[in-house]
Specification:
96 residues; mainly beta; 12 strands; 31% strand
Length: 96
C-alpha cells in the first residue's frame, strides 16, 4: 500500500506481526536510544505510532492512528490518542 512505514533500528519485533501502511515505530526522544519491543502476533493498524522505551505484549491489537507511549500487556488492545489500553475480548467472553 502507499505510505511509508518507519521502523527504528533499535526496535525488536516478534513473530507473526502485521504492520500496516503509515506506521511509525521509533524513539520518543532523539537522545534516548530506546525503541519499542514488540511481542508475537501483534496487529498494528494503519497510521499508528509506537514511541519510546515501551513493551508491546503478545496477541495485541493496536488500532489505526493510535499513539502508544506506554506498555501494552499481553492480550490487549490499544486505541486512541494517546492510546487507552483495554483487555481483548475472546470469543468465549463475547458470547457471554
Amino acid at each position: 500500500h502507499f505510505g511509508g512505514i518507519i521502523v527504528s533500528g533499535y526496535t525488536r519485533i516478534g513473530d507473526n506481526c502485521r504492520i500496516r501502511n503509515g506506521v511509525t515505530i521509533g524513539l520518543r526522544r532523539v537522545e534516548e536510544k530506546v525503541a519499542p519491543v514488540i511481542g508475537d502476533n501483534v496487529d498494528i493498524g494503519a497510521g499508528a505510532k509506537l514511541l519510546g522505551p515501551i513493551r508491546i505484549g503478545n496477541n495485541v491489537v493496536i488500532g489505526a492512528n493510535a499513539v502508544v507511549i506506554t506498555d501494552v500487556p499481553d492480550d490487549s488492545i490499544a486505541v486512541g490518542v494517546p492510546a487507552i489500553i483495554k483487555p481483548r475480548r475472546t470469543q468465549s467472553t463475547a458470547d457471554d
